[in-house]
Design a protein that fits this description.
heterodimer, A: 240 residues, alpha/beta, Rossmann fold, 2 domains, 6-stranded mixed sheet, 3-stranded antiparallel sheet, 25% strand, B: 267 residues, mainly alpha, ABC transporter involved in vitamin B12 uptake, BtuC, 11 helices
Chain lengths: 240, 267
Amino acid sequence: MTLLKIEHLEVFLGGQHILEDIQLILERGEIVTIVGPNGSGKTTLLKSIIGSLQPTRGHITKASGLSIGYVPQHLHLDATLPMTVSRFMRLPFQRSRLQIEKALNQAGVAGLGKQQMNELSGGQLQRILLARALLESPDLLILDEATQGLDQSGIAAFYRQLEAVRCELGCGVLMVSHELHVVMRTSDRVICLNRTICCEGTPERVSSSPAYLAMFGHHTHDTLALYQHHHSPSPMELPS
Amino acid sequence: MILDDFLIRAFLAGIGVALAAAPLGCFVVWRRMAYFGDATAHAAILGVALSLVLSTSIFAGVLVIALTMATLVSLLSNKGYAMDTLLGVMAHSALAFGLVAVSFVSGVRIDLMAYLFGDILAVGLNDLAIIWGGAILVLGLISWRWSNLLIATLNSDLAHACGIDPRREQLILTLSLAMVVAVALKVVGVLLIVALLIIPAAAARPFSRTPETMALLAAAIGAISTTGGLQAAYWLDTPTGPTIVSLAAILFAVASLVGHGRHCQSR
């Protein structure tokens, strides 16, 4: 089932093209990751999809009744705003205590419901944001550099959680990430973005494409090879 | 009739304004828009002048100018000037134009002090109806949009993802703010309106764990400040508006000290 179809998307902001001629189709159940250097339009693309930014040209077609769970890059909480985790989970839609507990469980932060939001650690906050996105029982989960500020083990744990959630809900996942080696391991498809889509495909294909190598250099290639060697149950075709 | 007593009317007026100001004041604190309240309040003087020139009701003049100001600022934001610059230009030019306009009104001697500091003891039955009408309108609007306003305050992208337009919520908030400024003008005056918005909310913060408790506590603190301040002004023979704000400030100081003490103990 197609969740999302983007055709000829173009965003023109502040006198320059941020995105040009973006074509993208997202299917249910797949994890698609957008990689690209700073200022390549990754966040702009996500913002166009959730509707907080009006594209200059092009169409974004969403499956009818598509529910989107969105995990922002970071949530700045003003210290003057008191907010418990469970109250945050009930914004803006009313949820039962059971639903909230289930979502916190899914995101790996069970039992934090009574905590104040601004007393959480960075990793806890990101997981709470994930839990809140899961409450919508999303068809499509959108994450914008959701692991920023987490340490290595935190990142790995976060992605494991994400894969588990994907299996449980069967939702599509679209995310932006800088954690190249983890991305390559968890994604079904990688999109390399730099104003336009430079290349896309399976992680193996993208990581050996000239456009990707020009952008991120060859050393990431080695990390990938190492990873695949480690985790593939059967010998996998390595990019030549 | 009980409302014939000017003190009873003053009490009721104070409570009405405090109730409407409390939840709105919380948003002003959370969104750091204190200066926005100031700007709307300053512009109110222009509204007073206009209503004198056109001989309409003061409330109508102030409401129109405050609403215009609120809409203008909302529209002009993100157009190349920083918000505080924009507000600074608009607030003080509106105040200046207002003061100049007042000087042209010949034959009418107006007591400018009454608009700067308010005159709660002069609240009539008409004013009371306007204050409570406005307060109920604002409270209804805010409680209807409460969750949407909260999520839009937290993060505009999260709001968008839930299908909520944060700009619309911002507009609702600024329009309510204009309404509160217009109804509170008589009670505390232009210069002290923002104090009545912010101080109770700030005093409520240390004792709140959710946004809702903060709004309710702010309402209670605001009501205590207005009624207590009125009583104190009556005994001490001091100006009422400033006495109300002074009492609110004392409550804020006590709340901060107690809150800080509890914070240290829990460490």
